[in-house]
Every structure is written in structure tokens, then in C-alpha cells.
Fold this protein.
Amino acid sequence: MQKNTIISIVVLILAIIAVGYFAQFLPKEKINTKPTETPEEVVMCTADAMMCPDGSYVGRTGPKCEFICPNNSNTDNTNPVIIDKISKQTFKIGETVYITGTNLSGFENDKNIWIQNNNGEKGIIYGTKDSTSEKIIFAVENKHCSEDTSYSGLPCSKYINITAGDYTIFTSPWGKDSNKVAITIIK
């Protein structure tokens, strides 16, 4: 019995060596060594995920590492985002303002406001993170970033300057825009 075991082991070892020897002659896939992108074009997004309002999960994507949920419009009337009230519609830069409404909180309870001028240019205003999804407290400053870079960690590449005049504000949690509210900034 031991003789058969020894022979089996020797045959197995010889088979492994033979496979290794002949494997070196198999055709290998050609490796593309030419870079397809320059280092400046490469964007590395963090590998986290977000649950969308419809229950699906998405990862970060695109050059801005954004979460993009399917059906990201507010036309489906599922959990509509609504601004009901604003504490002041005319105010100075730096004054504290709050809005109340429905479904105002986004991912990680983010409460951000977008301010938009008459040319369609917009900037993000980061609001408070509190325990209620019905209130956002914020202040308009002299300039705001035109893109949400809070999760990508990238520096802001473009700003909107805020001067005295008419604007609209809205919020967009989970990619669903709320109604737009008219405001006036005074000196």
C-alpha cells in the first residue's frame, strides 16, 4: 500500500512540473503599455456608495465624483422636495436665513442650498446639519463655488460672485430639485 502512495505522489509531482514547463510556451495576451490618459485626466473617486430614494445603491462617478441616482428628477412626485417658507426674502450678504419645507435633507443629512442668478449661473451654499430634515439654516456670502466638491475633496474650480440683485434659491437632495424661491440681496 505504501508503494502505491509513493508512486502516486511521484506521478502527481511530475504532472505539476510538466504543466508548469508547457505553460511557458502558451501564447500570452499582449499587454498594452501605451498610456490611454495623462495623469491630469485621471480621477480617482472614493469607493463609497449611496442609497438612492428608490432603494438602489450607486457609487461615485464622473470627473466630479458625484452620486447620480436613477430617475433624478422631481417629476415622479415620490418624496417631493418642497420649500414651504423662507425667513427673509430680502437680506444682506452674511445674514442668517432659514427655510423650512419637506424632504430637504440629502446624503448624510446634508442640507445645501443652490443660489442662481438671472444668467443661470449657480453656486452652492452649505447649510447646517441638524436632526430635522424640515429646516435649513444658511448665510449667503460674497462668492460660492459653482460645483459641490464636499465629497470629492477637489478644490473649487469656478465661483459665482454674489452682488446686490435678484436671485433664486433651491435645494437638490438626492438629485431632486425643489421649487425655486425668489430672493433679493441688498447692500
In short: The radius of gyration is 28 Å. The longest strand covers residues 96-102. The helical segments are 2-23. DSSP finds one helix and 13 strands in the chain.
